Protein: Jumonji domain-containing protein 4
Organism: Callorhinchus milii
Amino acid sequence: MDEETLREALARYRDAGGPSYEEFARGGGIDRPGGSELSYSRFFREFLVPNRPCVLSGSVTAAQPAPEVWRPSSNGDGFPKIHHRFSDAVVPVANCDVQEYNANPKESLTLSEYLSYWRERRAHGHTSPRGCLYLKDWHMHRDFPDHGVYSTPLFFRSDWLNEYWDSIRLDDYRFVYMGPKGSCWSANLCGRKRWLLFPPGEEAALRDRAGSLAYDVLSPALRDPQLYPGAAQSHSPIEVIQEPGEVLFVPSGWYHQVHNLEDTISVNHNWLNGCNVDTVWRFLRAELSAVQDEIGEWRDSMADWHQHCQVMMKSCTGMDFSQFYVFLETIARNRMEWLDSGLEDPGPGGAQGSELGRRQAMFDLHRVGAALESLLADADFTRLEVDSPGLGSSPGGLLREVREVADSALT
């Protein structure tokens, strides 16, 4: 990241002006920046900070997976190299032909069993009595950390979420998806996908009277105002065809639906960083408020009512306020440690999370500081700070330390 981009980004967040999506409501399309001239600074400035989607070609990302591993055989025998590497891996598989509670039921198969099903389905004209099975949310990177079959593009390496989960060795948010034609940032390793995207706020028009999002945004039921009273006000989705080797950046809050146009393998990472940490914090606060409203009648009679609300929220979101603080502390410590080292370019094997350079670390620290400041001003968190012995260090002390290091690094 260059100096101009750093200062421009910090000024934008200080001004607290939210991104605008009016151009998409008027029918604007999604950019496809190409060529070797696309720098990280330009991507950061034009897409990450304003929360705008884009499609990157394989030549831009310079992070193609080992193609022979993912390539189907020419004789229709499936994916022999994938089978050889991971045949005994247990993978989650969803049945796209069955809907249960607005989702698809899942089962576990070995990858060998799934590839056998896929091969048979292709041989029978893309049909199977077992339905359309989609390998979904396989944590390949977590289960096989030394897989070496793909690397994260430079543009997406500021990834606080997976940096945190890697540090506590419990989970990750990196997924491999494999599925036949007709199944539902995504990097296409082979095959083509059709994406339908809605800018933040548009999803409200896709909710039924009970508040549930439509299972299929193309369903004729959306034209029924008795079922979906707001659908008439919605704009048409932005359509993107993702080709093999392309990477689609789907920003925070962009509701989307995906269809495989042919047999497809893709890698998807859920992530967050300094550009959207405020969005995550607003989401957590809204989720806690919803829980508090739901069980508000027991507020005075239930012991530890506030802590119970945190437990319920975590069961829905995967994180409560205490863990969000520990998450922020982890990123802050990593960045301060690296800045304190005095290195300008970490090079291979540099400190975790620092590979994008000193200015990225400075930006991250400023954004952690802003999130900590908002967290400390929240009454529900302040209550936990007093009651919960599980917090790593004094939140107020951490905020002062972050501000001091961030300000001195910027001058």
User: Anything to note?
Assistant: Residues 277-410 form one domain.
